[in-house]
Amino acid sequence: MKTKIERKMFKISGVVLMLMLLSQCSVIKSGYNGVLNRSLGKGVKVDKVYENGFAWRAPWNKIFKFNVQYKSYQEKIDILTSDELHTTIAVSAILHPKPEELPKLLLEVGLDYYNNVVKPEFFSVTRSIMAQFEYSSLSVKSTEIEKKIFDELKLRLVGKHVEGPNCNIKNYISATGC
Length: 178
Prior knowledge:
Strand order of the largest sheet: 3-2-5
Shape: elongated
Largest sheet: 3 strands, antiparallel
C-alpha cells in the first residue's frame, strides 16, 4: 500500500517540478527579440539580447519582448501650409527598433517607443516641413516633401535606438476654408 502512495507522490512531484521548470522558460516568437529584467538583481541585462526561441529565466525575472520587424505606423496630421491653409494629410512612418540596442531602448525610452519618442518627432517634423510649401504644390512636390521629412526625422532619431524611418504621404484631405 505504501509503495502505491509513494509512486503517486513521485508522479505528482515530477509534474510539479516539470511545471516549475516550464514557468521559468519564455518563448520568444520569430520576429521578436527579448531583454531580461532581473527584478531582484541588477535590473535590465544590458549586455545580452535574446533572439527568437526559448529563454530560461528565474521565476521572479521578466523578459520584455520587442517586435524587431519593420512596422508601418499610419497617422493623420493636421497641418498649416505656407499660404495659411489648414489641411489634414495621411502619412505613414516605417521603422523598427535596432535589435542590438534593445536593452538601452528599454532603459531610456520604454516598451512604447513609438508613442514616447517617434510619434512626437514625426508630427513635429511633418508639420514644420509642410509649412514650407503652398497648398497648391503639395501633391506635385510630394516626393520632395517625403524626402525632407525622412531626412529630418532620421536626424532627430539619432541615439533613440530606432532605425529606418521611411515616410510615405498617402493622401491630402482638402483644406478647410476653401
